[in-house]
Structure prediction request, 253 residues.
Amino acid sequence: LDLEAQLVHAVERDELDLHLQPQQRLDDGELVGFEALVRWRRGGELVSPGEFIPIAEESGLVIAIGEWVLERACAQIIALREMTGRDFVVAVNISARQFRHPGFYATIEALLARTGVNPASLELEITEGAVMEHTEAAVGLLHKLRALGLKLSIDDFGTGYSSLSYLKRFPIDKLKIDQSFVRQLKPNSQDAAIVQAVIGLGHTLGIKVIAEGVETIEQREWLKRLACDEIQGYFYSRPLAEPQLFAFVIRQC
Ligand code: G
Ligand code: G
Ligand code: MN
Ligand code: NA
Prediction:
């Protein structure tokens, strides 16, 4: 059976897991949120979302998988709140097709009503590609989602066809600097110049900036010096499944 045929049953057979990768604020070192990353247990092997999300996107299965992810993310927001008394932000990756799906807004609205989560605890990560096509509709939708109280971020910032003008028109809370700019980050490098420019641009527009793929203390220190707001990456923590996730949170709180 090919991946697509098996993926059809992944949700109903309970083969998906949601791992959460912690995000750290740099000025005080606080744990502030998480990115939700889906995993597929296919038979005995773990299939990476880099492999199956494009198939899900192509076939339309990404709508059902995306709803499952949103549902689980809200359940985790509630569980984390019960455990710590704090509201953490959980960021969910929204694929281009999911974002453009006519039922997307209604799905989000119903989810918030049903679960009762604080909307400010749910962040939607959109890629530049998803918002750059059909710009008028995208702008309208982003404003409607923002009016619900959700957080919005641009994922993989700098790798797409970034048009800087959209940052002015889109109600964005956060830019996520792609890991490709962080990997070889060192003082006086080209990547450092790009990262510094993105942070300056974000801050000028009142947008927070998080750097992804931070693996070393040197990268973290350099980002802190550049006034980057938050980091995410193996240096702080890998994406965590449930028992490790709750242990990590208890250690931080
Ligand atoms: O966790 P990992 O590095 O394997 O993720 C690979 C890719 O899959 C990343 O680009 C990530 O954004 C994407 N991805 C992970 N989880 C989800 C999800 O729930 N929905 C969508 N649309 N993409 C996801
Ligand atoms: O496209 P997106 O930014 O959503 O993808 C995030 C992906 O990056 C996830 O699949 C996650 O597993 C991976 N990731 C998270 N932290 C690190 C890191 O420090 N180094 C590397 N190489 N990958 C990371
Ligand atoms: Mn992401
Ligand atoms: Na990213």
Observations:
- Residues 62-84 form the longest helix (23 residues).
